[in-house]
Amino acid sequence: MSSANVDKKPQEAYQKLAKKHQPRPNVLKNCVKAFVVGGAICMLGQGLSQMYVKWFGFPPEKAGNPTVATLIFLSCLLTGLGVYDRIGQWAGAGTAVPVTGFANSIASAALEHRSEGFVLGVGGNMFKLAGSVIVFGTVAAFFIGIIHYFFFHWIK
């Protein structure tokens, strides 16, 4: 018997023991918290959109731009103050799905690497996550556009 097999048995036994004593997550409770917080962020966005239409005279189809910018600003501000991360710990995926979660990930990376300087630290590291999201989002949009073109133009 090789030494690699002998070393795996205690490790496997430990993994089984740890899994046995690990608390099980309450999936329903976590889903409800994510739904409530994600819904609250979306309600805030809808309220901001209505505010831009009513108070600032934006047409409804153009009110989305300042709404998204405001949500991104609030997310970055709350990330800098350490509030967004506490909300995210409690709500889980509810804070990650809206645009505010994406802004939080960029702001968190910028804050984490600020000691390395603005160019190499903040600028070089804040878009590590954003870069992959932008690339794969663009590629997905390209293929969806092609499918849409062929589906609606060749079927007629």
From TrEMBL:
Listed Basic and acidic residues bias regions: 1-11
Region called Disordered, residue ranges: 1-21
Transmembrane region(s): 27-48, 68-84, 91-111, 131-152
Sorted UniProt keywords: Membrane, Transmembrane, Transmembrane helix
Coiled coil: none
Keyword Transmembrane helix tagged: yes
Classification via PANTHER family: STAGE V SPORULATION PROTEIN AC, STAGE V SPORULATION PROTEIN AC-RELATED
Name the record gives this protein: Stage V sporulation protein AC
Originating species: Thermoactinomyces intermedius
Organism classification: Bacteria, Bacillati, Bacillota, Bacilli, Bacillales
Name of the gene encoding the protein in the UniProt record: spoVAC
